[in-house]
Amino acid sequence: MSEPKYRVAFASDFHLGHNRAFIYKARGFETIRDHDQWILQSLSEIGAHDHLYYLGDFALNATRDQVREFFRRIRCNNIFYIWGNHESSTSKIYNEARDGLFPELEGKFEVYPITVKNVTFLGNVHQATINHQRLVMQHYAPLIWDRSHRGAWAICGHSHGSCKEILPQATHGKILDVGVDVAMKYHGRPFFWFEDIVKIMSQKEFVMADRHGSITNEEIYD
Fold first, then answer.
1. Can you give the pTM of this predicted structure?
2. Domain at 207, CATH number
3. Domain for residue 70, yes or no?
4. Which element (helix H / strand E) includes 77?
5. Which of 134, 116, 108, 113 is nearest to 70 (CA)?
6. pLDDT tens profile 75-91
7. Alpha helices in the chain (DSSP H)
8. Which residue, of 49, 67, 151, 200, has the fewest CB within 10 Å?
9. Residue 153: how many CB atoms within 10 A of its CB?
10. Which residue range forms the structural domain that includes residue 126?
């Protein structure tokens, strides 16, 4: 069997440039410069042809040009971006590209996907199937997500490791926080590989928050 041509990584909530001690000191750094440098250098493990799904809150207190430079320093050519709740600078890059492509919209509507160099903006929610596994990705942790009753996994961020129900060790439901705070604690790097998620999800119990039909556990992967 031939090796896959690329690997898939997931990350969220870097808060690059967010010069607040509760961000960088909580992650073990003395300055925001050291914090940002470590994250960006650690991402070099992700190859140019790999795919990185990023689930929001990339940078705060940074200019549009600084955000562009952060993206430029990531050698991955396939960053797929899902909006978080702190996107003032990053959204300017998207808005500029959208308005250049669709000036007739006058900035009143969002259009996806839009690619700017190595970043493809996907909107607020994105679904993908990887190795026959359905994933539903968004910044916030959902209670019920599309095809959750059919075995789809929910991948999210936002909570910075503070929501115990979506941590790797939580077993109630196929949902995972892939934020940098969680990734650093469990893997010593700022992101998860898909293989990490497969291993974690194998320890989680399939749970339906509602009784959507009469499906049984044996039927979820039909």
1. 0.92
2. 3.60.21.10
3. yes
4. none
5. 116
6. 999 999 999 999 999 99
7. 21-24, 32-42, 64-72, 88-101, 180-187, 194-201
8. 49
9. 22
10. 8-219
